[in-house]
């Protein structure tokens, strides 16, 4: 029997992403260890969201504004994923905030696209 997620699993994942995003964007003086952990989590979340949004835009018309802005958000997130945190706490903190903003934008686009989908 294949493993399936309960219907609210996506909402729980979105809540977990938002929790990390909020922490990174509001903590002005993060501890280095916490910053490293959050950055690792955000990189994984952004990578997953890039794939999820890319899959979901395939169902949108090519001239859709929602599709266009989602693709721009994907490209920006991919650029951030290729970058690195730098060599000091300030650049690492700035990088984590950039990833957090990317995660927030991708999550927004993913939810907006899901809202456009017809209910079966």
Topology summary:
Blueprint: H1 9-26, H2 32-57, H3 65-82, H4 89-116
Key terms for this structure?
about 120 residues; mainly alpha; single chain; elongated; about 75% helix
Explained architecture:
With 120 residues, this protein is an all-alpha fold. Helix content is 75%, strand content 0%. The chain has helices spanning 9-26, 32-57, 65-82, 89-116. α1 runs antiparallel to α4 (89-116) and α2 runs parallel beside α4. The longest helix has 28 residues, at 89-116. The two termini are 23 Å apart. The relative contact order is 0.16. The model is unreliable at 1-7 (pLDDT under 50).
**Structural class of the helix and strand makeup?**
mainly alpha
Query: Termini separation (Å)?
Result: 23 Å
How much of the sequence is in beta strands? under 5%
Fraction of helical residues:
over 70%
Q: Summarize the main sheet.
A: none
Low-confidence stretches: 1-7
Number of strands: 0
Rounded radius of gyration (Å): 16 Å
Q: Mean pLDDT score, rounded?
A: 87
User: Count of helical segments?
Assistant: 4
What string, H for helix and E for strand, traces the elements in order? HHHH
User: Overall 3D geometry?
Assistant: elongated
């Amino acid at each position: 029997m294949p493993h399936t997620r309960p219907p609210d699993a996506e909402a729980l994942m979105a809540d977990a992403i938002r929790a990390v995003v909020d922490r990174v964007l509001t903590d002005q003086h993060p501890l280095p260890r916490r910053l490293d952990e959050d950055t690792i989590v955000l990189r994984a979340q952004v990578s997953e969201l890039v794939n999820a949004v890319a899959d979901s835009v395939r169902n949108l018309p090519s001239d859709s504004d929602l599709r266009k802005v989602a693709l721009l958000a994907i490209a920006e997130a991919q650029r951030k994923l290729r970058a690195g945190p730098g060599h000091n706490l300030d650049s690492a903190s700035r990088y984590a905030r950039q990833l957090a903003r990317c995660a927030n934008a991708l999550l927004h686009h993913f939810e907006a696209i899901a809202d456009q989908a017809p209910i079966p």
